[in-house]
Amino acid sequence: MFRRFIEDRRGNFAIATAVAIVPILGALALAIDYSEMTRQRAMALNALDAAGIAAARFYVAGGSEKDTIAYAKDFFQANMNGIDTSAANFQLTLPSSETGGGLLTIDASYSFKPFFFDAFSSLVSRDQTALQITAETRVRLKNTLEVALVLDNSGSMTDNGSGSGKKRIDLLKTAAKQLVDTLAGQAAQIKQVDKPVQFSVVPFAGSVNVGTQYATASWMDVDGRSPVHHENFNWSTMPSNKQVSLSGGIYYKVGSGWGSAAGQKVTRFSLFNDMQRVTGQVWTSNWVQKCGWTWSGYKCNWVDEGSYSYTYGSYASWQGCVEMRPHPYNLDASAPSSSKPETLIVPMFAPDETDSTTNGTAYTNYWADGTTGTDIVRQKYMPKYFEPNNTSAAGSGKGPNTSCTTAPITRLTDVTSVNGKNAVNGAIDAMVANGATTVPQGIVWGWKTLTSTEPFADGRPESEKGNDKVLIVLTDGANTYYTPGSLGYGDGAGNKSIYSAYGYAGVNQSGQSKSRIFMGTSVSSSTYSNSNYTTAMTQQMNAICEKAKSSNLVVMTVALDLSSSKADELGQINALKSCASDSKFRKAPDGSAAKLFWNTTGGALEQTFKEIADELSNLRIVS
Q1: Most CB within 10 Å of its CB: which of 38, 230, 401, 563?
Q2: Domain of 104?
Q3: How far apart are CA 358 and CA 372, in angstroms?
Q4: Which of 616, 452, 467, 461 is nearest to 140 (CA)?
């Protein structure tokens, strides 16, 4: 019987199954716990990412370090779908307060509680991290903004805005100040970073005004060494005893006729000082007895041989406007350098044009010619500037300041302070519409206000992370530069244009075969027409925009009341759209990134600037 029991095979399968079921169930339990552990790890990563973004927004909005940590931890727990992480090791590290950007880092870890394998305690005792779920997230804060408002102040801005009974310039002031107030309100809550939001204001028309306080700045061409500084002057016309001679790249007064002024530099700045007007005269009598034979006999008479003595005053002072630099420096915001005179900033000085009306009245005629001859000879005759005129003082934007019509630039200013915000809003209120439209110069100077280098050097370093430099460019028209004939004036001197930021279109850039308005473009440099000037300037504008974007500037553009049915305005619409950067947040209907371009009307301008404010608010943080 015992042998039969031993040899009986009928229960072997059950025994084998009983023996095998332990590792089979163990493997299944391991698979379940491993699957759950993997699920929780993925959930923790997602929850931590969400907590990081939420904490960053909370912190940027002004949350304290303690409150930010608590907020992040609660946010993390809320996204763990019921899994208890109250005992988790949770660490939040905030970025340094010295810069506008930095990493907000959150690390979290907690022990995974298996469903089936408490018996694996021996394994855990050997490696306490075996069942630890760890996750880390990093959020780069971009909580500082530097914004240049590049705003059209041309004459057409006095027209009523479409869909509104108000002037465009007034609508612009309201919308721009609303933008400043919105971002200033947000920035005021940011306590962790100095100057979180700054604005500059760059009004532009036919030129840009940098401010008279910079007449002696190192970046101005105070010595007259730029190749365009003397392009409208013919110093060979000076007399032998009052010469103006070039030495070492600088013009000096040479000769006995200069008296104590001999040896002084001659620049556009000095010309402003040398132009004197008669402000008063006093007759001093000198009675002399004159005797002689007359038809009635020998007689003596007293004759007053006295003379007038004159008092003089300034005719005009430089009002702050500057010319475009020679190509290629007109297309970027590179810092001026005394070692490269062509990079220096040249003050505007509109030459006095001819008194003669033989070829029609000249556009800029404010001083006595002092000579005769052709219109160009009269225009370039330099002794006239050193002879006092009996005239009244030149008004704003008149005389040698012709085409200087805008208020000065306002440098980057922190709008989190009351004084700073008031200064920016005051600069916006001070804008006056008058003159042509030179968008390229406006963009270049807007860019200059944002750089960390001269002329202003107010911007944060270009390499600093967490800071956005933004250009907001608004115009209500195409770029304009005018021939004298298009304005009803004569051009006997062959200037081909009125004088403005590019100088005369008929005067070639020094050493070049083209004038500055044509340099760097593909348009005909021998076609002197308003439309050709517009095309050339728009090409330069496009080049500047591309360089600005390649330098990591965010470019936002606004076309105000421009019509696609007008060829020049359609061209400007397309150019402004091309100029704009891509949005990081909005999508176009085709799914591509939307352009930061708005084609708006006067009536919708305020809403447009609200959308711009939303876009700028979003720039403050990216994950």
Answers
A1: 401
A2: 14-141
A3: 12
A4: 467
